[in-house]
Amino acid sequence: MLNNRFLWIIVATLMSIFATWVLSDGSIIRWINALFMTGLISLVIAAAYFVINGGFFNNFAKGFSKIFTLMSNNALRSIVKDHEFDDSPDGEDSKVERKAWATQLIISLTFILGLVDIALSFLLLYFI
């Protein structure tokens, strides 16, 4: 599975480098700018996922849940709860594992793609 992820990362990185070269019309400065921007966008996507998945906003959600519980009637109390998920009794754990693997692949791909693009843009800028 690790080799498959590594292969996807290499293919996506090479495609990104080639696509930015084609879109830059052969100009080295445009290529450096395109590499830097695609790298920056990829790093922002990976960082946003890391912050959200890391549970940074869970405390805010629990705080608002408690506020709504205190200020509302019983009907709203039954709707607003702490959201804790149990294991799936349907045997859908394989779907969850596949989804987790896919998100892990996408995040590692965007992070490494961003790092490679930005590093290559700095390297090319140094040699100009």
TrEMBL record:
The keyword Electron transport does not apply. The keyword Transmembrane helix applies. Residues 32-122 form the DUF3899 domain. It comes from the Bacteria. Keywords: Membrane, Transmembrane, Transmembrane helix. The chain crosses the membrane at residues 6-24, 31-52, 105-127. Coiled coil: none annotated. This is DUF3899 domain-containing protein. The lineage of its organism: Bacteria, Bacillati, Bacillota, Bacilli, Bacillales.
